Amino acid sequence: MAGQHGGQGIEELSREWRSWIAENLMLGSHPSSLMPVLQQAGIAENLARREVELALQSPYLAGAVRLSNRLAKRDWVIDIQRRLNQLRAPEIPRRHQLSAQAFLDEFYSLNQPVIITGMMDGWPARSKWSPAYFRERYAERVVEVQFGREADAQYEMNSLAHKRKMAFGEYASLVENSGQTNDFYMTANNSSQNRQALRELWDDIGQLPEYLVQGERTGFLWFGPAGTVTPFHHDLTNNFMAQVAGRKRVRLMAACEVARVYNQRHCFTPVDGRDIDLQRHPLMGDVQVRECILEPGEILFLPVGCWHFVEALDISLTVAFTNFKWENDFYSKYPKNHDF
Q: How far is it, in rounded angstroms, from Cα 293 to Cα 283?
């Protein structure tokens, strides 16, 4: 945020510095607390003081402050739910063959996660799917995979830049022989290409008629080595994660924690799910982070807006579903501008 430089230093503040002053005043910072930062940046005291005073007198800032007050009221309402959530046990419940009505009443309609067991026992995929099986049956099929993730700290946000096509047999061998890595992963972002290329695989999975709309076979395939990481983010729909093979560690934060997870871009947060740094992200100290190990044969319900971090502990195969019987169109009213 540099100003315009003259012989006597900064003579006029840049647009960026003025935006910084306005944003901090809207967030409740005392005007005097802004002065040291501005002066340390080389802005003369009289210029800094004048700009802060102009901002305080601005009708535009007054309107923005009023809007900020409205948002603060909404945050207060959301915070009620956040605090009430903390009265629940941190363990994510496991329910065996949960009925559709109980799932709707106790979890789906309450935006609460649950692990459902005993619903995948008859899936052929449970006994058939493996890297060796994929090489034997589908080696020449061309699939799409995320590659080069370890060279890009924002690999999930930049997922379109990491797409690569290759033979499925070659990819299965990479998964089997590369040990622990996060460099490549077949994810839901690759679903359009892969559902068609591997269409027979959908005959090996159940379609969960208790919970999901029946019709055309659906699902998103996730397949990767131990060590793949999906960083904290939230989805715009309710999701099922059906774990076919391998284990995954999942960390969850309720949707109503949004004001404390440093969400500034779309559905992502810079908070590292492997090592939450409270010095860098102090508001996280008051966030309930729930954790589970999702075992093969278990289905995790991820409520819409729920922040989740996922780490594969083994070579992992997961099928995700979003075609629930109940209301699941929440993305239509999602903000069009993704900068928050």
A: 26
CB distance 166 to 173 below 8 Å: no
Helical spans, DSSP H, in 41-86: 45-57, 59-85
Candidates 184, 216, 222, 217; CA nearest to 319 is 222
Instruction: Spell out the per-residue pLDDT of the chain, length 340, in tens.
Output: 544 443 345 568 899 999 999 989 988 899 999 999 999 998 999 999 999 999 999 998 888 888 888 988 999 999 999 999 999 999 999 999 999 999 999 999 999 999 999 999 999 999 999 999 999 999 999 999 999 999 998 898 888 889 999 999 999 999 999 999 999 999 988 788 898 899 999 999 999 999 999 987 889 999 999 999 999 999 999 999 999 999 999 999 999 999 999 998 999 999 999 999 999 999 999 999 999 999 999 999 999 999 999 999 999 999 999 999 999 999 999 999 888 8
Whole-number Å distance between alpha carbons of 262 and 255: 13
What is the helix, strand, coil percentage profile of the chain, to 5?
Answer: 40, 25, 40
Give me the residue spans of the domains in the chain: 1-87, 91-333
Looking at domain 91-333, what is its CATH homologous superfamily?
Cupin (2.60.120.650)
Interatomic CA distance for residues 216 and 197, integer angstroms: 16
For 64, how many CA atoms within 13 A lie in the half-sphere containing its CB?
Answer: 16
